[in-house]
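Marked as duplicate of an earlier ticket. Keeping the data here for the record.
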Amino acid sequence: MTLEEAKNVITREPDAPIGLLSHAAGVICAKENASQVSLLDLVECLKRNNLQFGKVTYVSEIAALTLYYRTGRKRKKNHAPYEDFITDAEDWFQYLRERSQVPDTPG
């Protein structure tokens, strides 16, 4: 899957199955694609996951990990792994906006 195909799956295929969404998120979050993927593209992965599944899946997990890595945002250290991940798209958008890393309005 190309990067453009992956972005299309995330943004334009409302009935895509979780396997296809996971593959697309993996492509979007791949380190070698970082220069071509904006922080808002990563937030779109979170938004898509939140709207369709309402729980943490591979799509939101990998997007959140990539956002933490690329922004340097600190996590709260809980004893249970991954419980302190912020996977809410709106929370991330607010965080990025407050740091002037994205425009005031998405899209």
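See parent ticket for discussion. Helices lie at 3-12, 18-29, 39-52, 58-71, 89-98.
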